Amino acid sequence: MTDMTPEAQFDNFFALFEQPVQFEIHQERLDQHLRLLQKQYHPDNVAKNLADTAQAQQHSEKASALINQAYQTLSAPDSRASYLLEIAGQAQNVEHSIADLEFLEDAMQMRMDLDDAITDKDRLVLQQLHPQIVERLTKQSDRFSNAYKSKDWQTAIDATQKLKFLVKLNADVTTGLDEVATAHQSDDDDLYV
User: Fold this and answer.
1) Each residue of 59-73: pLDDT tens digit?
2) Nearest to 141 by CA among 121, 164, 115
């Protein structure tokens, strides 16, 4: 497998990671395949198969970049949904604004609550927000998956737009929880100084 160029070797990111072309992925298999590909395309291993060391280095760097990009794309639900729409030739409207005012009001309220909780280092509010965001992520992921399977492109695009917002919100609440935990631990450490 290492004698082909990364560009010619794989039809798409799903093929690269030996995953079916669908929204649902097996994260554990994706992680395992990432390690396998990283090992396979490591510069030391590629250099053994190619006589020209400079060519081997360039080949390895291209493969590594492609592998990392594919992994990042498939790992996150928003980028995976966008990629599936791209494969289906339906990605042209993904970057448009969200038109669902009810979703926007709810999302903006969650954003304000999140920002306040981070500023106030309020772990309890952050812990309450996290499952709410995860629930909304799951709902939009299911919406996308069903719409994609039935080729309901408008619903798939709408779900993708909402996923982009929710993934960012989820990352921010996770970061906020980590920061509050670190600050709390640091405060505890000060007691023993």
Assistant:
1) 788 888 899 999 999
2) 164
CA–CA separation, 155 and 43 (whole Å): 43
* Same domain? 14 vs 42: yes
pTM, two decimal places: 0.84
Tokens of 42: 């490591």
Q: Whole-angstrom Cα distance, residue 173 to residue 165?
A: 12
Neighbours of 102 (CB within 10 A): 7
Residue pair 82/91 in contact by the 8 Å Cβ criterion: yes
State the first-to-last Cα distance of the chain, in angstroms, to the nearest integer.
Answer: 57
90 neighbors 161 (Cβ within 8 angstroms): no
Distance between CA atoms of residues 180 and 124, nearest Å: 10
The answer to whether residues 107 and 95 touch, using CB atoms and an 8 Å cutoff, is no
**61: CATH:** 1.10.287.110
Phi and psi for 88 in degrees, rounded to 5?
-80, 0
Residue 125 belongs to domain spanning:
93-190
